[in-house]
Specification:
Its EC number is 2.7.1.36. It catalyses: (R)-mevalonate + ATP = (R)-5-phosphomevalonate + ADP + H(+). Keywords: ATP-binding, Cytoplasm, Isoprene biosynthesis, Kinase, Lipid biosynthesis, Lipid metabolism, Magnesium, Nucleotide-binding, Transferase. By secondary structure, this protein is of the alpha+beta class. The protein has two domains: 184 residues, 2-Layer Sandwich (Ribosomal Protein S5, domain 2), CATH 3.30.230.10; 139 residues, 2-Layer Sandwich (Alpha-Beta Plaits), CATH 3.30.70.890. The chain has ten helices and 13 strands. Helix 6 packs antiparallel against helix 7. The longest helix is centred in the middle third of the chain and has 23 residues.
Length: 362
Amino acid sequence: MTVSSAPGKVYLFGEHAVVYGEPAVPCAVERRATVTVSARDDDHVRVRAEDLSLNGFTVEYRGSTGDRPDVDVPAPLVEAAMGYIDAAVDQARDAADAPDAGFDITVESDIPLGAGLGSSAAVVVAGIDAATRELGVELAPREIAEHAYQAEHEVQDGQASRADTFCSAMGGAVRVEGDDCRTIDAPPLPFVIGFDGGAGDTGALVSGVRALREEYDFAADTVSTVGDIVRRGEELLAEADPDADDAPEELLSELGRFMNFNHGLLEALGVSSRSLDSMVWAAREAGAYGAKLTGAGGGGCIVSLDPTPETQTALRFTPGCEDAFRAELATEGVRVEVPPEADAEGEAERAGDGEHTGADSA
Ligand code: PMV
C-alpha cells in the first residue's frame, strides 16, 4: 500500500486567459486530496471514493473503465470521477512500464469537487504519485506534473492548461504560460475562500469564452488585459520578501485591487454567476483587500484576501454561500504520506482479502 496526497489551488490571477497563452498565477492551498493505492495480482482496478462532496461509491472494473460500471449514483459524477482516476491509472502504468498493473484505489478529498479549487488535478497528481511508487518507480514532482497534465488533457478533450496540475504537484505559488511552468516566490497570503455549494461546467465555460473571443475583438482584448493584470501582479510578488511572516499591507492592497479588476473582466467574459458575485461583494464590503472567482467559474468558489476574521464571518451570513474557510498557501506540493516499504503488515492483510466483483454502491 502507498498513500500520497496533493493540494488544491486557487487562482490569484489568470484563469481562462491562460488557455490562450497568457500567464496565470495559481497558488496551492492547504486542502488536500489523499489517494491510497495497493497493487493487485490481476489487472483489475477497484476504486473507492469518499468525501468527494458526493455520495461515497465503490465500483470495480476490469483493466480499464471501457465497460462502465452500473452503480446507483448520478452517472455524470461517476463518469467524471472515474474518468480522472482511469486516466491517472493509465499514466502510472505508462510511467512504470507496467501496462497490466491492477490496483485497489481509495480517494479521499477535502477539496470541493469541480468548484475551482483544482480537485481533479489534486486527485490525478496524488494518484499518479501513489500508483507509480507502488510499482517501484519514483518520479520527480515535475514528471508527475507532466503525466497529470496528459491525464487531464485527455479527460477534458484537450481543453486543459498546465496550471492546475503543475501547481498541485509543485506546491506554493507558480506561474504558467503555455508550456512554460515555474515556481515563484510568494509571501504567505491570507486567503479566505467562499463556496456556493455548486460547480461550473469547465468545458462549457471555456467554450463560451472561446466563442466570445472569436466573435468580438473587445472580448479578445479583455483576455489579453487579464494577461496584463497577471504580469503586474507577478511584479508585485517578485518585489515582496518571500520570507516575511506576513504579507505587508501595501502588497495586499495592490494585489487585492488587481484581483478585483481580474474578477470584473471574468464577469465581462460571462463566467461569473449571481452567487459568485454576491460572495465577491460580501467579501469586499467586509473589508477584504480584493476578491474574485477562482477557476472556471459559473459557480463554485471565490478567493479573497483578508488577514482578519471579518470576511469569513460575512461570507457565512451571505445568502448563496454554503461554506467559508481560510486556506493557507500550501508550500508543499505532492507528497508521499505512507511509502510502499512501510507496509509489510498491509501486504499480509491484503493476502487474506476476499475478491470483490461487480459494483457495490455505498
Ligand atoms: O475550475 P478549474 O479549477 O478546473 O480551473 C479551470 C481553469 C481554466 O483556466 C478555465 C481552464 C484551464 O484548464 O486552465
